[in-house]
Design a protein that fits this description.
Chain A is of the alpha/beta class and 466 residues long. Chain A has 16 helices and 19 strands. Chain B has 3 domains: 74 residues; 46 residues; 80 residues, Alpha-Beta Plaits. Chain B is built from 9 helices and 8 strands. In chain B, α4 crosses α5 and α8 packs antiparallel against α9. Chain B is elongated and about 90 Å long. Classes of the chains: A alpha/beta (466), B alpha+beta (251). At the A-B interface, α12, α13 and α14 of A face α4 of B.
Chain lengths: 466, 251
Amino acid sequence: MRLEFDRGTVVLRDPPVALDAATLPGVHWDERVSMFRAPALRHAEVREALHARGILFDDERPLVDAPLKNVAAFAPAAWRDITLRPYQEAALSGWEMANRRGLVALPTGSGKTRVALAAAARLRVPTLVLVPTRVLLEQWLSVIGGAYCGQVGCIGDGQRNISAVTVATFESAWRHMATLGGRFGLLIVDEAHHFGSGLRDEALEMSIAPARLGLSATPPRDSVAVARLTALIGPIVYELAIGDLSGGSFLASFDVVKINVDLNQAERALYEAEREIYGEAFKAYCRSHQSPTWKNFTIEAARCAAGRRAIAAFAKTRRLIGLTEQKQALVSRLLAEHRTSRVLVFTADNEAAYTIAARELIMPITCHIGRAERRDALARFGAGELRALVSAQVLNEGIDVPTADVAIVVGGARGEREHVQRVGRLLRPAVGKRACVYELVTRATCEVRQAHRRGRGLASRSTAQL
Amino acid sequence: MGSPPAALLNYSRAGLAIAPGFLDARDHGWIRLLVAEYERCAGAPQRVLRERLRGPLPFSCPPRKRRLVEHVLSRFWKSAVVAALPPIEARALVFGRAARQQASLGPTSATSLLAELARERGLSAAALATALFADLPDQRVTQAPGDLPSVNELELRANLALVQSLLLRSTHVSIDLEGNARAVVRHAKWRGLICTLDVGSSRERPRLGLSGPLSLFHRTVLYGRHLGELVPRAAFGPRPRAPRSTMGRHP
């Protein structure tokens, strides 16, 4: 019998008559080709099950038991020694103890990349690193270049060179995993929380890699996503929050200053009027449905004019509280007070970011600003030529932002995860550094609850989860 | 052109079958009026066109069909940056100078700084302020296409986008082959699809079944794009037929 990688799946060629292949993990009879087939993700389990039953077989990709057989192409010595901090070492041990499958959750700036490099250096099997953006693709290529002497492949951003150590964007991996999936023994998934919701999960399903390491500063909490991520990568094997590392030599200390602001009279009137429109519509929906959710309400509301008006009213209130008159005045004051610091201003949407940029004459970094200009602006910010940047979401994750001292959170749309990523931007340690995060919260609006919820992400986990 | 989002798909269900709501000659009248609305917004910022399309239009038409045609038209109606100074240059100049002045002199008035910089460049302050964000999607100027396709072609393109988008959400497609079979099969194989041919004796034409390897296990979107590419090829037969697709989970 032979196991063959076939376009993101594994087919069982010529199974012995005595074997009931349909009882092997993940294996289905494929009548289209008259063969048994399993998703590539289950490759290691199928092998184990065959071993357990004492069935002899050939494997086209024998990476599971004999990883070192496949390293000739990139020479073990090509990896340099990587020294780790104590918590990074603990994270790596946790991953190894979990059979080399799992998610390491460490705060932004704490050196997740280093843990991944050490994992690749220790395992020494062909390694594929998956990253969400082209900016991160560049960053990983440069970081791997410093730790690995061999050639590093790149798939994405118009390039397609495959080597024993390769970096690919999620999108390219999703498109090409049918051919790549059988070549790598270790998958490193950066910002792994992007998986688990169905979008591009197939990229991970189509790889036979038995060792999988996910990296995230904000692992998902929703049970469905957690279960899916556990199946695709593995469980959370080690987790530390910002609170666990800040104040020591690994992350800078920081203060959070919450400033409450009011809506002016006109803003309040508009807010209440619009809120009533969507509030009434949602109440009516709740009365007529057994287990109403906001998500289902928006789907249903999109089907009628009144519903669409309700959704528009909701969006209008969000825009309104995202940047009020008092918030604008406060941003001006805070920028003036911290004119010798490096300041990051975070808004809920691009519109608010451009308003602040035009009013305060500070550079916006949004999805509309091209890559070259963005890189140039970040370099100038790092060199001190620009003293402040304003952004809605682009700076949340995936960009190596030069160190900053002050963050002004004018608004946020994505809760705890976004907040943790934003605060993490300030925590690169420096001698005597104490960062400051200002949160502007509009009184008597839904922002109060949002601010309370997002603050929970900064609390320490008290014990590392192993 | 990207595939239209699910919200634009116009179809009706009858049991397991799906009937796409194709555009036809009856739609030509309002398509012409819609194109005229686009033409009216030529030369204005994209924001104007977007607001115009969001508001009520002076003709009635099926909303989903209209949004599908808008999706097709968006490919032809491009936008351009119109500014006295390239926006990247303007931003580097204004924000860089502002940072220097604020660090040395304290808070600076945006108006006076813009006026000073505009004078240095021989521009008006308003032109410099406009140039700062002239390349943002809302600020770019709408440009009419040089060669807009006929209403007939727009109808065909919208229908093709509709079929391709439905196929994008399918797990299995079967096509009754009639001529041009080789090109269809060759393309399917090149794209890594699994092809099965049913030539049952009672069947008038052979039926080609197409799906991706993963579709054995769950509904997959990975092969949808490749399946969609088959439509124009399959449609070259002497009697084109719409492919039949299965959108649910495989048994």
